[in-house]
Amino acid sequence: MAIKTNTKKLWVLALYTSPVISAMTVTPLFIVTNNRQVDYPIALLMVTGVALAMWGVNIWLGNVFGKGAKNDDVKRYVTSYTFCVVGTTLAAQHAFGGMHGSGHVFFHFHLIAFFAINTAILILQDLLLLREKHTAIEQENMQLKLQNIEALNRQLQQQVQPHFLFNSFSTLKALIKTSPADAEGYLVKLSGFLRYAISTGQQQTATLAEEVQLCTDYLYMQQIRFGQALQFSLNIPEEIQGQKLPVFALQMLAENAIKHNTLTQANPLVITISYSNSYITVHNNMQLTTAEHTGGTGLTNLIARYKTLPGGDVIINKNDDSFSVSIKVLP
């Protein structure tokens, strides 16, 4: 295992665990040897000091043998037991010899005790390092996932934009001949839509006010195209419009409703966008088109984007008559 030691966190762990390790080592010793209770605090302090010294050696060895080379772990463990077990056991034998009589009698006991201490330290050290490595991998995976989502989002925009522009210019051409006033209004909305698309190309989120304006412009252009076959309403309180949404979230949901449903004068598509309890809901009546779509990609992408944003959530409700998507407003 390649080790990248986090020295500060390891020393904090050493300060927390050394007294515990000392108590677990010294207490059984005093129970089985009937030493004087007055010597117990002294023994605790001494073994705590020894444990801290062993921690120091292991932290240093982690830096020396943490380069990721082959057999680094074996070298680290062997060197650790050589320095920390043999060395500190001999030191402890000398220190405790006065309490137990002959140091030679208790040499093997101390050897086993400090072998156990060093093993516990190595296990704790490796657990912390594994956790740090796991956290680093999770963060890296999250970054890669976010980059993949953003790349997919840009790809989708590039795929949709030519089709959208083709329909928009076709509609604009027809309006210029039949209704120049409507053509002028349509052109203003289209230019605002394209300006927003360009300016937010690298952003993850936008203000709710910007998203509402973009969606309104989009629906206005679509209403000119479809006439009374498309009806819509937006009811978003002004006081929350400084909060955030993923870029193009509302427009994409409105576009999905238009793309997957039939729009006729007799049976118009009705889209309502409203706010309640920190959620923006885009609701439409269900009258699915018979044409086949590669549907779901935009909505799947939106759900994936929300997973990378703190506090985000997407709720989908569907029945025979209606379809709605509720997205959490980001503070």
Describe this protein's structure.
- By secondary structure, this protein is α+β, with helices and mostly antiparallel strands.
- It folds into 2 domains: 133 residues, no CATH class; 150 residues, Heat Shock Protein 90.
- It has 8 helices and 7 strands.
- The strands form 2 sheets. Strands 2-4-5-7-6 form a 5-stranded mixed beta sheet, with helices on one face.
Task: Summarize, please.
This protein has 331 residues and is an alpha+beta fold. The protein has helices spanning 7-33, 40-64, 72-100, 107-178, 180-199, 208-226, 249-259, 297-307, and strands at residues 205-207, 230-235, 244-246, 269-276, 279-285, 314-318, 322-328.
Quickly list its features.
331 residues, alpha+beta, Heat Shock Protein 90, 2 domains, 5-stranded mixed sheet, two-stranded antiparallel ribbon, 8 helices, 7 strands, rod-shaped, disordered N terminus
- Regions with pLDDT < 50 over 5+ consecutive residues? 1-5, 97-105
Return the average pLDDT rounded to an integer.
79
Using DSSP, what is the number of strands?
A: 7
**Which secondary-structure class do the elements indicate?**
alpha+beta
Please outline the major beta sheet. 5 strands, mixed
How much strand?
5-15%
Alpha carbon gap, first and last residue? 41 Å
What is the total domain count?
Answer: 2
- What does the overall shape look like? rod-shaped
CA radius of gyration: 34 Å
CATH class of the largest domain: Alpha Beta
CATH topology of the largest domain: Heat Shock Protein 90
What is the element string, with H for helices and E for strands? HHHHHEHEEHEEHEE
Please give the order of strands in the largest beta sheet. Answer: 2-4-5-7-6
* CATH architect. name of the largest domain: 2-Layer Sandwich
Number of helices: 8
Helical content, roughly?
55-70%
